[in-house]
Structure formats: C-alpha cells, structure tokens
Amino acid sequence: MDTLEFRLDRYDALPGALARTSVRDIRSVFPESALISLKGRRDDPLFVSILLHGNEPVGLDVLKRLQAWMLNHPLPRSLLIFVGNVRAAEAGQRMVEGRPDYNRLWDGGESPEHDLAARVLDEVRAAKPFAAIDLHNNTGSNPIYPCVHETRPEDLQMASLFAPAAMLTRNPPSMMGYALSKICPAITAECGRATEEAGIMRAFDFVLDMLHLDHWRGAPDRDVSLYEVTGRLEISPEAQISFEHDGVGDIELPANLEKWNFFERPQGSIFARLSGEQSPLRVVNDHGLDVTPQFLTRDDDRLCLTRDFTPAMLTTNETAIRADCLGYLMEKRSV
Questions:
Q1: Cα–Cα distance for residue pair 95/55, rounded to 1 Å
Q2: For a tag site, which of 66, 157, 158, 209 has the least CB within 10 Å?
Q3: Which of 184, 90, 202, 95 has the alpha carbon at shortest distance from 145?
Q4: Does the N-terminal peptide bond of residue 172 adopt cis geometry, omega within 30 degrees of 0?
Q5: In sequence order, what are the residues at sequence separation of 6 or more whose Cβ sits closer than 8 angstroms to the Cβ of residue 27?
Q6: Domains detected in the chain
Q7: For the chain, which residues score pLDDT lower than 70?
Q8: pTM of this prediction?
C-alpha cells in the first residue's frame, strides 16, 4: 500500500493568473488537483473535468476562454470543475512515470490516486450535476467526436450537440466518463490533437451550449451516427513494434494507420503483418476477455479482419500504444 497522499484543493473562483498560465506552468495556479465551484443562475451544476492526462491541454484552453467570457456574461448554470493530473501536466506527460493513469482510476483501487478519485466522485454525487463533460485530446489523427457510455436520450442529445459521429464505449470500465455516466448524463469529449484551434473552439462552444441548456428534449438535437466499440486493440508490452518501411519488428503496422480512423475497413483487409509464430496483438472486450478470433484471423504472415469494422483512436505513437492501447474497433449501431 502506498503511503503517499494527494491533496484535493478547493476554489470558488478562477485564479486571476490563470489567463497567463501555460499547461507546463499549471502548478503555479493549481499546485495540486483541484475542484472549482462557480455559482451560476441554475444550481444544478455542469461538471467539467480537465487534464486527466497531462499532455492533453484542451481543458485548460477552454477554462481560460471561459474565464474571459465570464468577464462580460453571467454564468447561466453553476459549474463544478475538476483539475486533474497537474504533476503530469507540469512534466508534459500523459501521466507521471510509475504512477497510475488518471483516466483509469474511477472504478476503485488501492493507490492514493484511487483514493483521490473516490473523493472527487463523492463530491460530484453530492452536487447532483445536470450533466458532465470530460475533456480530452487525441494522440492520433481523429475527427472531433464524443464518447457516450449510455444510450439514454440525454446522453445522445449531448453527443449530437458536440459532433455528428459518436463512439459508444464502456471499455475500460475504469475511465472517468463511464463513472460519471452512472451519476448523470455524461460524455467524454475527444477534441482532436493538442493545440488544434478547431478542437479548442468546439470544446469551448460545447461547454457554453451545455451551460445554456435548460432542459432535456428526450432525443438528439441533430442526427448522430453512433458506433459501438466492440474490441480494444492491445499489443504485448515486450513486443517490438515497427511500421511499414521502418525496420523489422514482431508486428508491422501500416504507416498510414491513423488515416483509417472513423472509416470502415472491409472484411478480409490486412490489419498488420507478423514476423513470428505468435501474434503480440490481441483484442479484448468490455470485460477484459480475449476475443481476438472474433476480430482477426491469420493468413500466413498477415492479420486480417474477420468482418467489416470501423477503427477509432488508432495511433502510430509508440509511447501512447504502450501506455494505453493501439486503438479500438467499432460497429455501426442504430440510434
């Protein structure tokens, strides 16, 4: 058992220095993880989570723009904001080396970070939020899209306000968005690569939309294409990864892998090539069970898809692959 403790600071206003603060300087205004409570005209707050991953600064960018907007506009709804892994943000990393991923804490555990997550969830439940948004950037090339974790009309309405295509996922069950969806309508907002202006603006506009939303319609506001995640792609930690024309590895992935995201790949298409008898790539379902044969079949040195799938979050960033996963496989679902 760890003996570390992680403080959860509380604020009732945004620090004045926030506007001049970069993500690497975040601890000059938020020395530790924090909950910020801002009073608005409606009491049931919108909950927003930022910086669960320290190298995904979109939430901080949104917070600074919101601070500027509030100079001339009253908040239409109260806000409860969680500022997550400030130590990783200071280092410019997804997470602190040797410590847990802050988006893999939310279904219980033994570490001090799990204790912090439990305290945050207690505060969120007590606040009885109207809705919740967890803001993220992507490592690979993806469109701007939301993850929904339930198919309630309210969650789908939120998704439709953010982007035209949404991912339905409950894998891994330790992510914050899934925990939040058990409390209120919730999405994980994937806002493209870090520093992309389009993603920052879409996230900021979406937060404003949700602050102004006064009731649920019981249906999506706009048409939304819903893709259900049926498999998570994981590569063995000891495997050597290579990309086309980039040397020999246990598994060779296409150099243009990221261009497949949110485009359907047909049955029989080659997903990867292998150099040995054993494949280091496996597919797991929501329960962590190995379901690889349902998704991939081997033909000589080729791994091929068993049926049509739409990939998402595929990345060629080896650090991200090893810290999390290669990506996900999805199938279209009717709304």
A1: 8
A2: 209
A3: 202
A4: yes
A5: 86, 87, 89, 90
A6: 9-223 (3.40.630.10), 228-333 (no CATH)
A7: 1-3, 247, 335
A8: 0.90
